[in-house]
Design a protein that fits this description.
The complex is a heterodimer of chains A (197) and B (377). Chain A has helices at residues 3-11, 27-36, 47-55, 65-68, 92-102, 116-125, 149-158, 182-188; strands at residues 17-21, 39-44, 60-62, 77-83, 103-111, 163-170, 173-176, 191-196. Chain A is α/β, with parallel strands linked by helices and 197 residues long. Chain A has one domain: Vaccinia Virus protein VP39 (Rossmann fold, 3-Layer(aba) Sandwich). The longest helix of chain A is centred in the middle third of the chain and has 11 residues, at 92-102. Chain B is an alpha/beta fold. In chain B, 33% of the residues lie in helices and 18% in strands. Chain B has helices at residues 123-137, 150-161, 180-194, 212-225, 229-235, 255-270, 273-285, 320-332, 356-376, and strands at 10-13, 17-18, 24-25, 28-35, 45-49, 61-62, 67-68, 75-76, 81-82, 87-91, 106-107, 112-113, 142-148, 166-172, 306-312, 336-342. Classes of the chains: A alpha/beta (197), B alpha/beta (377).
Amino acid sequence: MKNEFKIISNLLPSQSRVLDVGCGDGTLIQALINEKNIDARGIELGKNNVKECISKGLSVIEGNAETELGQFPDKAFNFVILSQTLQAFYQPENVLDQLLRISHRVIVSIPNFGYWQIRAKLLFFGKMPLTKSLPYSWYDTPNLHMCSIKDFYQFCEKKKIKIDRVIGINGEKTSSIHRANLEIKNLLSEVGIFLVS
Amino acid sequence: MDYKIENTNQIIVTKPLELDCGQTIKDFPIAYETYGELNEKKNNAILIFHALTGDQFVSGNNPITNKEGWWTTTVGPGKAVDTNKYFIICANVLGGCMGSFGPKSINKEKNEPYGLNFPVITIKDMVRAQETLLEQLGIKKLLSVLGGSMGGMQLLQFCALYPEKTFSAIPIAATASHNAQQIALNELARQAIMSDPLWNKGNYYQDSKIPKNGLAVARMAAHITYMSDKGLQEKFGRKLQEKKDYEFTFDADFQIESYLRHQGKVFVERFDANSYLYISRAMDYFDLAKQFKSGLSGAFQNHKTKFLIVSFSSDWLYPTKNSKEIVIALNASGANVAFAEIKTDRGHDSFLLDESEFLKTIKGFLDSNFEIFKNEK
């Protein structure tokens, strides 16, 4: 399981109710159920992923989080997870509002556009950057709304969304991010994980 | 037909059953079949609910038609619902014509078939009758319930009535209530039957002149709704039936005409016209949301059952929209639900066909839930 999933898993108390939005092939959900006895569900757009999840016995529904989160009642979950998907929505702000409505707390991870390698590639080569966490060419990327850790941090402050924790990932290393080290961590982290409520 | 319907496995339900229409019935037969072996812990049982014109003969040879059981693609040794592993139960619905209590049954007081004197039954009545069967077989909790189309309606009703009696549930190409179009299509079929003079207000059993033509037309109309536009076009298109050009008559020039006529013809051999009226009526009356104050989500409040909802992309009779309504209600009530739409051109009938993606999905769901259910006890 990738490092990001391990960090997310550590943020979740056992026996909580969790929804993984854009759960892919269900790797994280499966781990949460097996290792932490978490009541984990998923919603996923890709048909093959959905069938794979269901074949593993996971409670995953085929659907589009952009339009179909309305069906969940207020505070139906303790946590919802949105792993590196926020930037792919047409209206990420609306999606985030829905996530905050249906869950007590929300874990959002973002591929950091402020990461130094990305900045350097754009600066020195003058081309859209390709990296491990952003492997798409400009013409076939699903990512419509890229942002940096700093962007998302400030966005939460502006929207009065409470930031409980921010964790930066750089390779195998992780570090805690707060107001004081935001500039440097925004440069050094490839992925940012936000726990908000 | 050598095989007599009287020879089917059946239980006699002695406990009085008060029907939704207000009448009470008792001492009536429910015919059923089982496949596979019930294990010692009795935790491998699956109840299958059949659709409008289905019967209890799910798999293997149907002794009445001498053809394969209606769900042999899915149920059998080594199949997605593996009878080497699971114990499968299927009962003929109340109102049916394959050995369960229905309009063709003899009214002992008058010594003649009930015909239209048979009480109007509902999906709920069917389900309550089948629950008695589970009791007699000594099964407290099923591993799963499966049902496509009207089978899915019975399944939803079963889960709403007896949330503790099944660990998981797989409604397929189902709906929680008929909309105007679905009622209209059933009414078309009923009118076809009732306008056949031989139907004779349901009184046709004595001189064995059954309303074949009406029933065949009903089946032809229904059969169209089970297939998709694209599926029909690919299979038949404008192809002619064993001829080079039009014959300028009203015989079956087109293959599709010949196909539908054949479907109608074989259907009347095995199905009772009055049963068609009664069962299609039960489908139209079904409205699960109406039974609960808080609507459809009230049907599943505080349920632990694990649901897998399946729909087919080209099904226009019970479209994905209908399945999604069920998913939404389940999510609103906090139930445990999985949902997949299977991409196919084969329409509503896809669940009866060899659809590999569909079969793989339900096999995986059943097998993994069996592991969880086994360890739960």
